[in-house]
From TrEMBL:
Its main location: membrane. This is Ionotropic glutamate receptor C-terminal domain-containing protein. Residues 40-242 form the Ionotropic glutamate receptor C-terminal domain. Gene3D superfamilies: 1.10.287.70, 3.40.50.2300, Periplasmic binding protein-like II. It is found in: Membrane.
C-alpha cells in the first residue's frame, strides 16, 4: 500500500517530558532523593542548621538538598571526604543525564518527522476511502475478496504517473501496487510517498504454464542457471536498476521550536474501539427408510388398482453382499418374483445384477455408485439413482468459489468409492484447476474400532481443505475423532458428500452440534413443498415411528423418496398381471477346495501347479490329501455358489484360489461364517481385508512396493506428468491407484489423467478407441497400464492402429500384464514393442525349480495343447507354495482355527523363495525385474529393489544406482535408442504461442509497440529474462508473442478455457505460456521460491 507522507503534527504538550521514558524519570528522581539523603546523613553533625527546626522543616531541607546537589554542593564546601566522594560520583552521573536529555530534546525540535497519511487498511475501509489499483491486475480481486474493500471504492489506474498525480491531488487515499512495481514507483517518486501497512503475500506470478506442463522442469532448471550465473542481476541492472531517486528529505519551513503551548498539557480525545468476535450407530437407516417407503407405495398401488394385487416380499441383506446374492437367488428361483428392488451398495448390486441377468429378472438398483458400463454388462440392471458426476461438479464449484487450490479427499475404502465417486471428483476438480493433494482411504467401520493414525496424518499435512466421502456412521466417527484432535477449528474446512448429508436429518442434534458444527455439505435436492409429498411425509412419519420407535428422528429423506418412486415404477410396469416384487437390502488328512478360472492363463497355470503340489506332498508325506476343483468361469456369483458347494457338500477344510478380489471378497465372507481358512491368490486386496475377515489368508503380496518401482523408473527419466490406464475393476481402483499416486509424488511426478477402461468382459472396440483417442490428444505421452492380459492384448493392438506406439511415447506395464509376458504369442508381443514392464522376480536356477519347470511343461502341454507357450510364471509358483502352506498345516485332529494359526505361522523354503506370512499376508515382494519388449520377444534389463534402487549383474558383481542408466540401453516405441521426452515439442509450423499483457502499467517489465505495418514488438525485463532462459535449454523452442488486452485474470484464464485461437495451440494440447510482469523480479534472489516458478497463478494455495 503506497500513501502520501505528511509532516508529523503530534501534540506538543509535555514535549519537554518526552526525551525520557517514564521509567527513566522515576529512576532519576529516586537517585536524586537518595543522594540528598546520603549527604544529609553524612553532613548533619558538622552542619547544625541541618538538625535545627521541626521535623517538617528538616524534611523540607532534605528535599531541597537533594535537588541542589544536581548543580552545586550545599552551602559551599563539604566537611567530610566521604561527602566529597559522593558528590564527585553524582556530579559525573548528572552530567551524563543532563547532556542526554538535552540531545534528545534538541533532535525532537530540529528534525522533521514524516509519517504516512494512512497506516492501516482498516482505516480506509472504515472511512469508505477511494483507493487506486489497476483493474487489469489480479490485485483488484484480492482487494475485494480477501481484504474486503468495496469495488465501487477502487479507482482504475492506467499508468505509473497517474498513481502519483492522484495521490498528490487526494483523489485516492492509497494505491495498491504489486511489490516489484512499488519498488520502482518509490524509486521514481521517493519524495512525498511511502509504503505503509502490511505486505500481502500471494502465490506470485511470472511465466504461467498449464499445471503439469512438461516444459516446466526444463524451464525451471534454466531459470536457476540464469539466476546462479548472475545473468538475472545483469538484466536487472541494465533494464530497471537505473530507477534512482534522491533520498534526501525535503526541508520543511514549518518550525518545530518550543512555544508556550508546549509546556501546557492539552487533553486529546481518545477513541476506544471494541473488538468483537463473533447413534445410535445403526448401519441400516437407509434400509429402514426404503422399506417403509416401499410398503407405502405397494399399499397405495393395491388400493388404487383394486383389480390388481402385487405382493412385496422383503429379505434383509444385513449389509452383506453375499447375503444379498443369496437372498436374490431365493427370491428369483423359489418365490418366482418378477422384479427385485433396492440393493443399497454397488457391491450388493453387482451380485444381484448377475443373478437377475441369468434369471431374466429386472433389477432396480438404488445404489449410488454404479460404473457407467454396468448396464451394458448386465442387460437386466436398471439404475434407479443418478450417478454422482453432477454432485462432484457441485463440490468442485464450491471449492473453486473459495479459491482453494488443493484438497485432501477422505473416502471409505470400498470399491464403489475408489472407482466411482473419487475418480469423478478428481476429474471435476481438475476441470476447474484444483488438484487433489492426498487421497486418504479409511477402512470400513466394521473393520476398524478406532481412527487415530488417519486423522493424525491429516493434521500433519499442509492442506486444510478436506472432502469426505464415507458412510454416515464412518463420517460421524471421523468427525468425533477430529473434534478430539482439535481439527474442527477455523483453519480447517470440511466438505461432505451426500452419502452423509442426505442422512443428516436422521442424526441426533447433540451429535451435529458437538462434532459436525461448521461442516459444508452437498445434499441431493427434492421438492418438499408439493401437496403430494406433504401427504407422503405425514403418513411416512406415522408408519416409521410405529415400526422403529427407537429411532429419534422419523423424517423421510431422499432415499425414502427414491425407493417410493422406484416401487411405483415397477408396479406400474407390472400392471395387468399378478406378480411379486422383492427387496434385497442391501480318513485321510482332509480335503482342500480349489476355485480357479479354467479359461484364463492364470487359472490354467494355477491348476497345473496345484495338482503337482498335491502329488508331491502326498508322495513325500505318505498321507492322502484330497483335492476338489471348481471352475469359477470368472463369474463372482458362480464362484460363491462353488464355495458353498465345497463347504457344505465336499466338507473341505480350506479353499485356495480366487483369481480376483471380486471373487475373493464373496468367498471369504462365506469362509468366515463356516469357518474355514480362505487362501486367496487374488493379485490385489484392500489393506484392511485381513482385519475384517479373520479367516482370510493373502497368498499374494501387496502392490505398494511395485508402485514405488514404477515411480522410480518415471523419476529416473524425469517425466513429471503421467497418464494411467487401468481396467475399471474394484481391485484396481482401491489398491493400485492410491499407491501409485503416493509413489509418484515422492519423485516429483503426478497422475495427469486417469483412463478407466470398461472390464474386458464388457468392453467394445468403439469405447476403447474413444479412450485412446482422448489419451492421444494429451500433451503427456507417458502411459502406465494396469489391466488383465486379455484387456492388454486389445489395448496395445488398438494403440498401434491409432499410431500411439511411435517415437516419443513411453509405455510401462505393471506385473498384472508383464508376469504373463512369457505366455504371449508372437503377434501379441510384437504389438507391445518398446514397452517397459515390471515383473515379479523369482529365482529360476535352483534344482527344485528346474525339476518343477520340466514336469510343469509336460503336464501343462497335455492338459492345454492349444496354448502356444508352456512355461510356468509367478502365478504357478505362488499356487504351488500356497498348497504346501495349507498341506503342511493340516492335522486330522486339529480345528479350523488351529489350521488357520498354523498357516499363519508358516515358515519354509518354497519353490523359489522363503514363504512367510505377516498378519496373514504373504511377505512383500521386494525385488522386481524390469523387462523391455523387443520385436517378438523381450529382454531382461535388470532389477529394482527398495533401498538399493536399480541393479544389474555384471561379471559376477552387482552394481546399484538410483538411475536407470545403469541397466543399459532401452529400446523405446518407434525404435529410437534415445530416451523419449514423454511429451511433444512445439515446431516452427506450430510454435509455442505466448500471451503478453498489452497495456502493462509499468513498461519497464513488459512493453508492446507496433511498427508502421502494425506488427507488434515486445520488450522489457520479463521478455529479456525469458529469452535468456531459452538460451539455457538444450533444444530449440519455437515461439511467438501475442499481445493480449485484458486483465491478468483474463489472460491466465485462457489456458483453462481453451477458447481463444490466438493463444491456444491445439496440436500440442494447448502447451501455452504466458509471461506476466513481475514474478522473476520479485523472487529471483530467493532460489527456494524459484522451484515454484512455473506453477499456476494462485492467490492462496
Amino acid at each position: 500500500m503506497i500513501v502520501p507522507e505528511k509532516v508529523e503534527k503530534s501534540n506538543r504538550a509535555w514535549l519537554f517530558m518526552k526525551p525520557f521514558t517514564k521509567a527513566m524519570w522515576v529512576l532519576t528522581g529516586a537517585i536524586t532523593i537518595y543522594n540528598g539523603f546520603t549527604l544529609w546523613l553524612i553532613e548533619r553533625n558538622q552542619s547544625p542548621e541541618l538538625m535545627t527546626g521541626s521535623i517538617l522543616n528538616q524534611m523540607g531541607t532534605l528535599v531541597c538538598l537533594s535537588f541542589t546537589t544536581l548543580f552545586s554542593m550545599h552551602g559551599g564546601r563539604q566537611h567530610s571526604n566521604l561527602s566529597r566522594l559522593v558528590m564527585v560520583v553524582w556530579l559525573f552521573a548528572s552530567l551524563v543525564i543532563t547532556n542526554s536529555y538535552t540531545a534528545n530534546l534538541t533532535s525532537m525540535l530540529t528534525v522533521q518527522r514524516l509519517e504516512p497519511t494512512v497506516v492501516d487498511v482498516e482505516d480506509l475501509k472504515r472511512d469508505n476511502a477511494i483507493v487506486g489499483c489497476s483493474r487489469r491486475s489480479f490485485a483488484v480481486r484480492y482487494l475485494v475478496d480477501v481484504i474486503g474493500i468495496k469495488m465501487r471504492n477502487i479507482k482504475d489506474i492506467i499508468s505509473a504517473d497517474q498513481y502519483a498525480r492522484d495521490l498528490r491531488s487526494g483523489e485516492i487515499a492509497a494505491a495498491f501496487i504489486e511489490a516489484p512495481y512499488a519498488k520502482i514507483f518509490l524509486a521514481q517518486n521517493c519524495k512525498g510517498f511511502a509504503a505503509s501497512g502490511k505486505i500481502y503475500k500471494v502465490g506470485g506470478f511470472g511465466f504461467v504454464f498449464p499445471k503439469g506442463s512438461s516444459i516446466l522442469p526444463d524451464i525451471s532448471k534454466a531459470v536457476l542457471e540464469v539466476a546462479e550465473k548472475g545473468e538475472l542481476d545483469d538484466l536487472e541492472n541494465n533494464l530497471i536498476g537505473s530507477q534512482k531517486c534522491d533520498s534526501n528529505a525535503e526541508t520543511s519551513k514549518d518550525s518545530s521550536s518550543l512555544s508556550p503551548s508546549s509546556f501546557w498539557p492539552m487533553e486529546a480525545p481518545i477513541q476506544l474501539k471494541k473488538l468483537m468476535s463473533r447413534e445410535v450407530y445403526y448401519s441400516s437407516r437407509i434400509g429402514k427408510e426404503e422399506k417403509v417407503a416401499m410398503e407405502m407405495a405397494i399399499e397405495e398401488f393395491n388400493s388404487q388398482y383394486s383389480n390388481q394385487h402385487i405382493d412385496l416380499l422383503i429379505n434383509d441383506s444385513q449389509g452383506e453382499p453375499i447375503q444379498a446374492a443369496l437372498a436374490a437367488l431365493e427370491l428369483v428361483y423359489r418365490h418366482r418374483v418378477k422384479v427385485i428392488l433396492g440393493p443399497q451398495s454397488w457391491e450388493e448390486a453387482s451380485l444381484v445384477a448377475e443373478v437377475g441377468s441369468q434369471a431374466h429378472s429386472p433389477i432396480l438398483s438404488l445404489a449410488y455408485a454404479t460404473p457407467q458400463w454396468a448396464t451394458e454388462r448386465w442387460p437386466f440392471l436398471i439404475q434407479a439413482s443418478a450417478d454422482q458426476s453432477a454432485q462432484m461438479k457441485a463440490i468442485a464449484a464450491v471449492i473453486k468459489s473459495q479459491d482453494w487450490h488443493r484438497v485432501t479427499v477422505v473416502y471409505e475404502d470400498i470399491p464403489s468409492s475408489a472407482t466411482g465417486a473419487v475418480l469423478q471428483l478428481s476429474e471435476a476438480l481438475k476441470n476447474v484447476g484444483i488438484e487433489i493433494g492426498h487421497l486418504l482411504p479409511l477402512p470400513p467401520l466394521s473393520s476398524s474400532s478406532s481412527l487415530v493414525e488417519e486423522p493424525q496424518s491429516l493434521k500433519e499435512g499442509q492442506c486444510r481443505v478436506f472432502v469426505v466421502h464415507t458412510s454416515l456412521q464412518l463420517g460421524v466417527h471421523l468427525f468425533e475423532t477430529a473434534k478430539k484432535m482439535e481439527m474442527m477449528k477455523e483453519v480447517y474446512v470440511w466438505i461432505i458428500t451426500d452419502t452423509i448429508s442426505s442422512l443428516v436429518h436422521s442424526v441426533k442434534a447433540s451429535t451435529i452440534s458437538s462434532s459436525m458444527d461448521g461442516i459444508v455439505g452437498v445434499k441431493s435436492y427434492f421438492n418438499e413443498t408439493t401437496p403430494q409429498f406433504k401427504i407422503f411425509r405425514g403418513r411416512f412419519r406415522r408408519k416409521f415411528i410405529s415400526e422403529h420407535p427407537d429411532e429419534e428422528k422419523n423424517e423421510p429423506g431422499i432415499y425414502a423418496a427414491k425407493a417410493y418412486d422406484a416401487t411405483w415404477a415397477a408396479a406400474l410396469a407390472m400392471k395387468g398381471g399378478r406378480g411379486a416384487a422383492a427387496e434385497v437390502g442391501t480318513g485321510h488328512m482332509g480335503s482342500i477346495g480349489v476355485i480357479v478360472d479354467n479359461s484364463s492363463r492364470i487359472g490354467k497355470e494355477e491348476i497345473v501347479a496345484m495338482k503337482l503340489a498335491i502329488h508331491d506332498f502326498n508322495n513325500k508325506s505318505n498321507r492322502q490329501l484330497d483335492f476338489h476343483v471348481r471352475d469359477s468361469q470368472s463369474d463372482p456369483v458362480l464362484t460363491l455358489l462353488s464355495a458353498r458347494n465345497l463347504i457344505e457338500k465336499s466338507r473341505v477344510q480350506a479353499i485356495i484360489g480366487l483369481e480376483t478380489w471380486e471373487e475373493a471378497s464373496l468367498v471369504v465372507e462365506l469362509g468366515s461364517k463356516a469357518p474355514i481358512p480362505i487362501v486367496s491368490l487374488a493379485d490385489a486386496a484392500p489393506q484392511w481385508a485381513t482385519d475384517r475377515w479373520p479367516f482370510l489368508v493373502r497368498a499374494s503380496p501387496e502392490k505398494h512396493l511395485q508402485m514405488k518401482a514404477v515411480a522410480a523408473i518415471i523419476g529416473s527419466w524425469g517425466w513429471r506428468r503421467i497418464n494411467v490406464i487401468y481396467e475399471d475393476t474394484n481391485s484396481a481402483g482401491s489398491e493400485i491407484i492410491p499407491f501409485l499416486a503416493d509413489a509418484l509424488k515422492q519423485v516429483g511426478s503426478e497422475i495427469g489423467y486417469l483412463a478407466a477402461l470398461t472390464p474386458s468382459s464388457a468392453v467394445n472396440s468403439s469405447s476403447l478407441s474413444d479412450q485412446l483417442q482422448r489419451l492421444k490428444g494429451k500433451q503427456s505421452q507417458v502411459f502406465v497400464v494396469h489391466s488383465s492380459l486379455s484387456m492388454a492384448e486389445r489395448l496395445f493392438s488398438k494403440a498401434n492402429e491409432l499410431g500411439m506406439m511411435e517415437k516419443g511415447s513411453v509405455w510401462i506395464t505393471t506385473d498384472s500384464i508383464t508376469n504373463l509376458v512369457h505366455s504371449m504369442n508372437s503377434s501379441v508381443i510384437s504389438s507391445m514393442e518398446g514397452v517397459l514392464g515390471m515383473k515379479s522376480f523369482f529365482q529360476e536356477d535352483g534344482a527344485r525349480f528346474q525339476d518343477f519347470y520340466s514336469r510343469f511343461r509336460q503336464k501343462f502341454r497335455s492338459l492345454y495343447p492349444k496354448e502356444d507357450n508352456y512355461e510356468p510364471g509367478i502365478f504357478a509358483v505362488r499356487a504351488y507354495d500356497a498348497v504346501w502352506s495349507v498341506a503342511l498345516a493340516m492335522d486330522n485332529n486339529g480345528s479350523t482355527q488351529q489350521l488357520l494359526e498354523k498357516i499363519e505361522l508358516s515358515d519354509f523354503h518354497g519353490l523359489t523363495n522363503r514363504i512367510k506370512f505377516e498378519r496373514r499376508r504373504l511377505a512383500p515382494q521386494r525385488m522386481f525385474q524390469i523387462v523391455n519388449v523387443i520385436g517378438k520377444s523381450y529382454r531382461e534389463l535388470g532389477f529394482w529393489s527398495e533401498g538399493s534402487g536399480f541393479a544389474k549383474p555384471t561379471n559376477g558383481q552387482i552394481q546399484n544406482s538410483s538411475s536407470m542408466d545403469i541397466l543399459g540401453q532401452v529400446f523405446w516405441p518407434g525404435g529410437p535408442t534415445s530416451t523419449p521426452r514423454g511429451w511433444a515439442l512445439p515446431t516452427s509450423e506450430t510454435p509455442l504461442r505466448i500471451g503478453v499483457p498489452l497495456n502493462a502499467t509499468f513498461k519497464q517489465f513488459v512493453s508492446v509497440t507496433y511498427d508502421d505495418g502494425g506488427n507488434p514488438s515486445v520488450s522489457g525485463f520479463s521478455i529479456e529474462v525469458f529469452k535468456a532462459v531459452l538460451k539455457h535449454l538444450n533444444y530449440s523452442l519455437p515461439h511467438e508473442f501475442f499481445p493480449f488486452s485484458g486483465t491478468y485474470d483474463d489472460l491466465v484464464e485462457q489456458v483453462h478455457l481453451k477458447v481463444r485461437d490466438l493463444f491456444i495451440l491445439l496440436t500440442h494440447n494447448s502447451i501455452l505460456s504466458y509471461i506476466t510482469n513481475t514474478f522473476l523480479y520479485l523472487t529471483y534472489k530467493i532460489v527456494s521460491m524459484l522451484r515454484n516458478l512455473m506453477q499456476w497463478l494462485a492467490i492462496r494455495r
